[in-house]
Design a protein that fits this description.
The chain is α/β, with parallel strands linked by helices and 256 residues long. Strand 10, helix 6 and strand 11 form a beta-alpha-beta unit. The chain starts with a strand and ends in a 6-residue tail after the last helix.
Length: 256
């Protein structure tokens, strides 16, 4: 099976799709249902939807909204935002979401273990947000506002041990920059764990996706690469064609 290529869609507090740069400078992208329908037509591998303000605002997941969104998806849907417990996750899975993504809650090994025991590790992903602080990598939460003393390699090992079946490694410093993943970071975290690592943060073109995979990621994800086009970041929902996907894996993303 070839590696997955995953669009990541960000929801603001009003359930609008936005795209950020370094977790700020939100740009409106469109209606989430319309974008999901476009991705259906493009036969994407999987879609990840993240409510970027839910944890900060202490909001629980909007299950009704997720049920409507899941009903539109022809592809596997993962969701993150405001999930703290089995009680939070149970109605989300019942609504049709196939995987939950933990942000702040991934730092609670008891919560991660309870979710993995209840739904299986394959249904629980931990999103590790990280950024450079004085030349050291640090794990952060709450859109970068809460900085921890833990580095992403140690955090990856901890969430794997707790029961997470997948790690989404998000580099805030490259979020929306479209300059490529930090391959050294991807390589370090991917080499430290046995569960799949999804590279996120920095990809802006197909060659970047190939670089992430060569660095050891099991899958590659991006927001910008699939919602922007051109130097001026015009909004255009895109996804590699089957021909381009083949090029990613054979020619390192140099599309002929």
């Amino acid at each position: 099976m070839r590696p997955r290529i995953i669009p990541v869609l960000l929801l603001d507090s009003r359930k609008r799709l936005v795209k950020t740069r370094r977790f700020s400078e939100e740009v409106y992208i469109g209606d989430p249902f319309n974008v999901i329908r476009i991705f259906n037509e493009k036969e994407v591998d999987e879609v990840c939807v993240l409510d970027i303000n839910a944890s900060i605002e202490e909001r629980p997941p909007d299950v009704g909204f997720l049920a409507e969104l899941a009903s539109e998806c022809f592809m596997p849907l993962s969701y993150g935002g405001g999930i703290k417990s089995v009680a939070d996750a149970t109605p989300i899975f019942a609504a049709g979401v196939e995987k939950v993504v933990l942000g702040r809650a991934s730092n609670d090994p008891v919560a991660v273990r309870a979710l993995a025991d209840s739904f299986g590790s394959q249904a629980v992903a931990a999103c590790i947000d990280c950024r450079r602080i004085h030349n050291d990598w640090r794990v952060v939460f709450d859109r970068g506002r809460a900085v921890t003393s833990r580095d992403p390699v140690a955090q990856a090992s901890a969430v794997e041990q707790a029961g997470a079946g997948e790690i989404i490694l998000q580099n805030i410093d490259r979020d929306g920059e479209r300059t490529g993943y930090d391959v050294n970071l991807v390589r370090a975290v991917s080499g430290a764990v046995n569960v799949p690592v999804v590279a996120l943060g920095g990809a802006g073109q197909l060659s970047h996706l190939a670089e992430g995979l060569r660095a050891g990621a099991s899958a590659v994800a991006s927001g910008s690469a699939f919602v922007f086009i051109g130097r001026l970041r015009a909004v255009l929902i895109t996804y590699p064609s089957p021909h381009n996907v083949k090029e990613i894996f054979t020619n390192g993303g140099a599309v002929s």
